[in-house]
Specification:
This protein has helices at about 15-25, 45-60, 70-80, 105-125, 160-175, 200-210, 230-240, 270-280, 305-310, 320-335, and strands at about 5-10, 30-35, 60-65, 85-90, 130-135, 180-185, 190, 215, 220-225, 225, 260-265, 270, 290. The protein is an alpha/beta fold and about 325 residues long. It has a domain at about 5-190 and about 225-265 and about 300-310: 3-Layer(aba) Sandwich (Rossmann fold). The strands form four sheets. It has a seven-stranded parallel beta sheet, with helices on both faces. Strands 7-10 form a two-stranded parallel ribbon. Strand 2 (about 30-35), helix 2 and strand 3 (about 60-65) form a beta-alpha-beta unit. Helix 1 packs parallel to helix 2 (about 45-60) and helix 8 crosses helix 10 (about 320-335). The longest helix is centred in the middle third of the chain and has 22 residues, at about 105-125. The relative contact order is 0.14.
Length: about 325
């Protein structure tokens, strides 16, 4: 294994995963150029606080550019003075349910933006680009756990469809231009500095405020909850191992220099179990408002991480019984609840 290059471009650097990946890269002595458009999908104050934390710890080794990578001209111009050896492309319009309300945001960021980043990778001849896909590409697949070899062509949300499209476009670029590319299908990520639109944050906030929590599909949901530190370790392990252009099949089936991996905890937790762990960490009981299934959602996710473990040694080590209390401790400090 070799650590690729001295400088890494990280998109979505103000995001939950992006900021912590940037922090980890900097901690191991690399330079990071971070870009993010700081949109208002959730409070910009949280995004700025993440950036401030990274900058305070690492100073000039971290350069941040407020920039929308869906604007090809602005992206190219802003990056022109900088040199970088690899890309971790985590920026995207996030959220399954929001894609029902604002589809154009997903077209701009997740489709046009992804092509723009592929073009940057091609123009710069980078050694490797790791990019964010999503477990949502599996749609309503009933077979559990989800394996990278499974069919993933029946998405149940536009968000999922854009992530599958990103994988297909990446396959094309790996074929035409032999760019080493790795797509990571993230399973539900949580932890300190997480996102306010995700269940973990919403549940903790409402439990601590003695407000009812909305529990979809009457609680009959399962999720592969993956702690942020495990995710970051997996991203860096993948970045350090670009897929070889040797004609051999890669994870996900490509014979081009393009690999696809599930990155999860390899444990599917029942939603009611998560709520019980949250109640214990918060020190109070939740009031449950049982709701029907939401459009675009899926009842269960569960990551088969065999390929990622085989190729990188990835070994998630944080069960929800450890990760959830860490999140709650951070959350109470951050929000004052």
């Amino acid at each position: 294994m070799t650590t690729l290059g001295s400088t890494v471009l990280v998109t979505g650097a103000a995001g939950f995963i992006g900021a912590q990946v940037a922090q980890a890269l900097l901690a191991r002595g690399q330079q990071v150029i971070g870009i993010d458009n700081l949109n208002a999908y959730y409070p910009v104050s949280l995004k700025q606080a993440r950036l401030d934390r990274v900058g305070a710890a690492h100073g000039d080794a971290f350069r941040f550019l407020p920039l929308d990578f869906s604007d090809a001209g602005a992206l190219t111009a802003a990056l022109e003075p900088y040199r970088f050896d690899a890309i971790v492309h985590l920026g995207a319009q996030a959220g399954v349910r929001y894609s029902l309300e604002n589809p154009q945001a997903y077209v701009a960021s997740n489709l046009a933006g992804h092509v723009n980043m592929l073009e940057i990778a091609r123009a710069r001849g980078v050694a490797h680009m790791v990019y964010a896909s999503s477990s949502s590409v599996y749609g309503g697949n009933a077979k559990l756990p989800f394996a990278v070899e499974d069919r993933a062509d029946h998405p149940v949300s536009l968000y999922a469809a854009t992530k599958k499209a990103d994988e297909l476009m990446s396959e094309t670029y790996a074929h035409l231009f032999r760019i080493p590319l790795t797509g990571l299908r993230f399973f539900t990520v949580y932890g300190p500095w997480g996102r306010p639109d995700m269940a973990m944050w919403k549940f903790a906030e409402r439990i601590l405020q003695d407000r009812p929590i909305e529990v979809y599909n009457h609680g009959e949901m399962q999720r592969d909850f993956t702690y942020i530190d495990d995710i970051v370790a997996g991203v860096l392990a993948c970045l350090d191992r670009p897929p070889a252009d040797d004609g051999a099949p890669k994870a996900g089936g490509s014979v081009k220099p393009h690999a696809l991996y599930n990155i999860g905890n390899n444990r599917s937790e029942h939603l009611m179990r998560l709520i019980a762990v949250l109640e214990e960490a918060c020190g109070r009981k939740a009031t449950l408002n049982l709701m029907p299934m939401q459009a675009g959602d899926v009842p269960a996710t569960y990551a088969d991480i065999t390929a990622l473990t085989r190729d990188t040694g990835y070994a998630p080590s944080t069960p929800i019984e450890v990760g959830v209390p860490r999140f709650v401790d951070w959350f109470r400090g951050y929000t004052g609840l």
